[in-house]
Amino acid sequence: MRKIAILNQKGGSGKTTTAVNLSAALVERGRKVLLIDLDPQASTSAWYGSTEQNKVLLNVFTQDINIKTAIIKTHIKALSLIPASTWLIGLEKALAHEVGSELILKRKLLELDQTEYDYVLIDCPPTLGILAINALCAVDELLIPVESRIMALSGLVQLLQTVDVIKSRLNSALKITGIVACRVDSRTKHSKEIVEELRNKFKDLVFDTIIRENVKLSEAPSFAQPIMQYDTESRGALDYRLLAQEVIKQEKLMLKAPISKAAVVAPN
Known about the structure:
Elements: E1 2-6, H1 15-28, E2 33-37, H2 43-47, H3 56-62, E3 72-73, E4 79-82, H4 91-94, H5 104-109, E5 119-123, H6 130-138, E6 141-147, H7 150-169, E7 175-184, H8 189-202, E8 206-212, H9 215-219, H10 227-230, H11 235-249
Parallel strand pairs: 1-5, 1-6, 2-4, 2-5, 6-7, 7-8
Antiparallel strand pairs: 3-4
């Protein structure tokens, strides 16, 4: 079972879009997926049609409740969801004096049947608080969506520095499984330059697949469908299928080596 956090602390990076559509694309390729929404905004949950505001996931963190009680089925066979709610906003305060609070999710994932899912994908909040730290401690891999804008590179540098701290102090197994360029507008020189900059600085950590700007992708949440269902022939559907293909190829390959400190430099 591969456990992958999808994280970028900068809003608009394509984090939720990637969590929703990569999970659906993996299921299309025959994988069983559990998608965990750790973002109090609950955008991933709403995208899959879950809008109920309850304390179940909050109670998983704060009480001795099995994480399996928080799992619901989606309308897509082989894709399960642990939905978020705005109640998670209170988690930081609730765990303020809890010893080892950053490791709660790691312990809870051990309650899952390790053969029931091929992938656990975690959509993290766009802040590096207790929820994101829990995700980074609970997984072995981190997938980073990056918007093709110049300021996004600075945010990426900060995130990679945080990952280095997590690796050294809390989760030595954490690896960068890949960086994916999102919201790429191939009509603009600027967008192309950002993708080139990513490839120059981070080499083979950057997926070959890019996620292009696509109106259909922005429309799909309103219909509570991943892009593969909303418009199966769209560019967005094609791009996420290609990304899933790259992720699946890694199953038979060694994960990419951790990024070197030399690569973590501010963009020009």
